[in-house]
Request: fold
Amino acid sequence: MRVKVLQTMNWSDISLIVGCIVLSFVLFLAYCGAFHVITFRTAQPYERDLHVAYFHTRGPYKDCGPLFSKVLKIFGGKSPMFALYHDNPREVAADQCRYAVGVLLPNELSNETTAVLKSNGLCQHTLPTIEKAFMTDFPATSFLSCFFMVIKVYGNMEYHMKEANIGTDFGKAPFIELHNHVPGHVRVFMPLEKQERFVLPEFSAT
Reply:
């Protein structure tokens, strides 16, 4: 039966099927952000102090996935997530790079949330309100979005900072990701002021 079906198909039918497959693949890549046009700008990244809870560790940034999974397992995706990358991987050995992954907390913590933080050993810190950061927003729609974000955002940020005549040296301040701060996107930014207050206590001592 399969042979007969193939025999009855002509080249136009095959071309149509192949075309649909290719189109679907291209649309999926677009959905994941492969063709997203990056626009960097200097602006206020958020409007109030951010109270955060997090796990911190050392290691290659590419291995941060398990820490994201750990946080998701605890909070179930109910709280907006964030990540902070402390070291410039061009200057610090990959296995010595410090980073943190966690969630944004409400101003008032419930007894339940306090218990969850304590039982799981999460650290807490407050990121200050700032007026200026070098930043962009990138679509976060699938696991491939992270791959494209690394290439298109982090791979081009230093060049665009130089083009914008940003005085802060690239990599001299932490990079922060706010997940779903803009719905369906990750906001990536580097603070241009109060940079010392973005150094997590656990990192200032190491």
Notes: The chain is about 35% helix and 25% strand. The chain has two domains: 2-31, 41-204. The longest strand covers residues 50-58. Residues 2-31 form one domain.
